[in-house]
């Protein structure tokens, strides 16, 4: 089975037993320690004549639990040494040592000047002399003996399934993702791109045009035009221009003949199917004119000829032109109706601020609210998160966050833009809209599910509403999801890499009023303490490098009382995109009294792949006041090679997402009845292993596709 499938299932805590014999299992130094005896499994062969499959499964189950902290709750008889090998690769295998091999003890023992000189010497050897072939280590560090690992760990519960069972699970996942109206993340789309052609999946419906366009271009299959209209061709051209030619300049195309022919086939196919929304095409009349010229388009029917003439000089008859004209004339009611009838109700919802700010009376505002469609659940959920943000409706500069090409773009209003702003809503308008939105969400969800059991811990879990800019991998949860750290634990953040000179792990402290303080290789030479410790900036090129941070929450709060949140970031210092190298990041929950190796797989809570088309990614954060770990997982657009150079205002709403709506409140609204026992439920919403009645469904915080399926019913 392909790696892309196994990796996706691993995020759902599922391991796949591959078809075939046990064979040779190279476990890369994973050891089974029992009673002081160590068994090295690297290169070990399980011979059918000498070891039974049952014994092999028992050894594999022991290794999974003892070395990786994985307990198999179902399918244990399918466990093999290959299962251990795969899981160890995902969680972390042969992770490069830190710059200070005795981290954190040896770091704290070194004086400030020694740490500073260590950094200078290391940079002189790597960037000065170009020595990237060998790992760099401290020249001042004393030898340190590490204690035997003896920390308490949080066990991760997994199941093992056969390949046939895995395909069935993936088939349901693919169907749910195709029905989602939300843009997909790179990981989710890669699953579709591989699974649909390999398993002959029949695509009957795609709810998101974004998904249909990416599949059309990725598979070069014009049958996906069944889910598009002629006006969507502009986005098809943008997709090809970005993916094939690495350009976002649609006004300056330079397509090869094969791509020109493909776009021509898309246009001709849409005309043949009668999917010609000429009025919507008029919104981008100039762009269309350029596209038709570049591909040397020759119409094959009278309707196509009329369309070409319209784009090359006809009057602009677009809905938005008429909408803007009505607003310019002060006719809010006609503007709302024009937009609703021409572009659909979702367009009215997405322009609420703009329209509400033009309302000159309570009557016009009430008309807007009455005409607002109330049947688009996901848009309503997004608006609820927006209007619950305290900064919305104020007079200060706004920060806009939007996603394009799976990376986040951020724009903060300049003073001039703020001064000239017209789309300003009052606090009263915001509260009124918010109340209506909450009421409509409850109405739409009511009775959507039957009897539902909801684990109280689901109040900490966020809904997957804004995951398109996320990186994927083991332990990844929805943005804003909170995990308690515990009183006796510290967070050890890590990153390691190959095929690139240097990746930097940094932490940015944010105060309640938005002020920032950087903790990174640039600032930590004299800043390491028991509160926050940095492992040193190791670079070693293609053989790999690593960096670590330790944060003791209680001590950090005492030392930096003004800091409320701590945000961890990864950046590629050499300017290469993450997608062109190998990078993993994640965190461990460790005892404050450190024991064992720097990287202990048993304590890893998440180890995910950073592979975005960018040089900068926000990983996760710590809410120091509530002692919570908070998922951020956001790929930042642009070539940012140093942390601390951009403001993080746009991340602040993520820290309060679960206060607005969470898995508990969402499924509570969707339930016909909330029951107290999982065995009585039709749907059990919990991350714990529970007994279910026949035909019942379990939904966990990591089951994004199942949650989206409930939203899109």
Question: How are the elements arranged and paired?
Answer:
Elements (H helix, E strand, L loop, with lengths): L2 H9 L2 E4 L6 E2 L5 E4 L2 E4 L3 E2 L7 H16 L1 E5 L6 H11 L13 H5 L2 H17 L27 E7 H17 L6 H13 L10 H11 L13 H13 L11 H16 L5 H4 L3 H10 L7 H10 L7 H10 L3 H12 L1 H6 L1 H5 L5 H10 L5 H11 L11 E6 L2 E6 L2 H6 L6 H19 L3 E6 L18 E2 L7 E3 L4 E10 L4 E9 L4 E4 L12 E3 L10 E7 L1 H7 L3 E10 L9 E10 L12 E6 L6 E8 L4 E9 L20 H4 L2 H8 E5 L7 E3 L11 E3 L4 H8 L2
Parallel strand pairs: 1-7, 6-7, 10-23, 10-24, 24-25
Antiparallel strand pairs: 2-5, 3-4, 8-9, 11-20, 12-22, 13-17, 13-19, 14-15, 14-18, 16-17, 18-21, 19-20, 21-22
Helix pairs in contact: 2-3, 6-7, 6-25, 7-8, 8-9, 9-10, 14-15, 15-18, 19-21, 21-24
Q: What's the CATH C level of the largest domain?
A: Mainly Beta
Main sheet makeup: 6 strands, antiparallel
* Content of β-strand: 15-25%
In CATH, what is the homologous superfamily of the largest domain?
sav2460 like domains
Structural class of the secondary elements?
Answer: alpha+beta
Distance between the termini: 31 Å
**Can you tell me the CATH architecture of the largest domain?**
Sandwich
| Low-confidence regions | 21-50
Radius of gyration over alpha carbons?
28 Å
User: How confident overall, as mean pLDDT?
Assistant: 88
User: Which geometry do the CA atoms define?
Assistant: globular
């Amino acid at each position: 089975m392909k790696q892309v499938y196994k990796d996706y299932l691993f995020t759902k805590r599922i391991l796949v037993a591959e078809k075939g014999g046990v064979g040779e299992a190279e476990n890369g130094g994973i050891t089974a320690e029992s009673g002081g005896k160590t068994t090295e499994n690297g290169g070990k062969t399980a011979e059918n004549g000498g070891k039974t499959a049952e014994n092999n499964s028992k050894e594999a189950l022991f290794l999974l639990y003892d070395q990786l902290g994985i307990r198999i709750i179902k399918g244990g008889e399918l466990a093999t040494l290959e299962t251990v090998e795969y899981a160890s690769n995902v969680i972390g295998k042969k992770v490069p040592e830190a710059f200070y091999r005795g981290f954190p003890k040896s770091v704290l023992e070194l004086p400030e000047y020694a740490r500073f000189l260590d950094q200078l010497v290391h940079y002189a050897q790597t960037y000065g002399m170009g020595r990237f072939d060998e790992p760099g280590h401290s020249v001042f560090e004393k030898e340190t003996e590490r204690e035997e690992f003896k920390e308490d760990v949080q066990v991760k519960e997994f199941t093992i399934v056969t390949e046939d069972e895995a395909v069935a699970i993936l088939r349901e996942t693919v169907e749910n993702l195709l029905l989602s109206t939300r843009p997909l993340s790179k990981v989710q789309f890669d699953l579709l791109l591989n699974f649909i052609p390999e398993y002959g999946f029949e695509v009957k419906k795609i709810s998101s045009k974004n998904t249909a366009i990416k599949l059309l271009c990725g598979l070069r299959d014009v049958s996906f035009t069944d889910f598009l209209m002629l006006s969507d061709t502009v986005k098809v051209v943008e997709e090809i221009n970005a993916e094939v030619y690495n350009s976002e300049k649609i006004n300056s195309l330079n397509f090869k003949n094969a791509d020109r022919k493909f776009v021509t086939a898309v246009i001709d196919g849409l005309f043949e199917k009668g999917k010609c929304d000429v009025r919507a095409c008029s919104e981008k009349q100039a762009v269309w004119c350029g596209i038709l010229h570049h591909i040397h388009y020759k119409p094959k029917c009278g309707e196509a000829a009329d369309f070409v003439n319209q784009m090359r000089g006809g009057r602009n008859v677009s809905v938005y032109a008429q909408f803007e004209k009505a607003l310019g004339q002060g006719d809010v009611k006609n503007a709302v109706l024009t937009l609703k009838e021409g572009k659909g109700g979702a367009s009215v919802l997405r322009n609420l601020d703009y329209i509400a700010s033009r309302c000159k009376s309570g009557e016009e505002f009430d008309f807007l609210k009455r005409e607002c469609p109330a049947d688009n659940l996901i848009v309503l959920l997004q608006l609820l998160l927006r209007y619950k943000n305290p900064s919305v409706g104020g007079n200060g500069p706004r920060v806009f966050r939007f996603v394009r090409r799976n990376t986040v773009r951020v724009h903060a209003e300049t003073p001039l833009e703020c001064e000239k702003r017209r789309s300003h809503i009052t606090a009263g308008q915001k509260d009124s809209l918010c109340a209506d939105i909450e009421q409509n969400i409850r109405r739409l969800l009511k009775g959507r599910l039957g009897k539902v059991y909801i684990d109280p811990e689901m109040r900490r879990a966020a809904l997957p509403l804004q995951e398109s800019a996320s990186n994927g991998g083991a332990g990844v949860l929805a943005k804003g999801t909170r995990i308690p750290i515990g009183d006796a634990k510290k967070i050890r953040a890590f990153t390691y890499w190959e095929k690139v000179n240097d990746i930097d792990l940094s932490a940015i402290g944010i105060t309640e009023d938005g002020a920032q303080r950087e903790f990174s290789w640039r600032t930590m030479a004299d800043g390491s303490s028991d509160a926050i410790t940095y492992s040193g900036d190791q670079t070693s090129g293609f053989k790999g490098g690593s960096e670590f941070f330790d944060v003791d929450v209680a001590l950090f709060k005492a030392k930096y009382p003004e800091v409320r949140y701590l945000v961890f970031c990864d950046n590629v210092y050499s300017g290469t995109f993450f997608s062109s190298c190998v990078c993993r990041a994640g965190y461990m929950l460790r005892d404050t009294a450190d024991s064992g190796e720097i990287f202990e797989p048993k304590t890893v809570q998440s180890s995910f792949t950073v592979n975005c088309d960018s040089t900068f990614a926000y990983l996760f954060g710590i809410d120091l006041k509530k002692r919570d770990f908070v998922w951020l997982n956001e790929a930042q657009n642009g070539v940012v090679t140093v942390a601390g150079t951009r403001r993080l205002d746009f991340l602040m709403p993520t820290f309060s997402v679960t206060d607005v709506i969470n898995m508990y409140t969402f499924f509570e609204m969707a339930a016909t009845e909330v029951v107290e026992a999982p065995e009585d439920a039709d749907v059990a919403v919990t991350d714990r292993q529970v007994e279910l009645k026949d035909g019942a469904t379990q939904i966990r915080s990591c089951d994004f596709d199942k949650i989206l399926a409930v939203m899109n019913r």
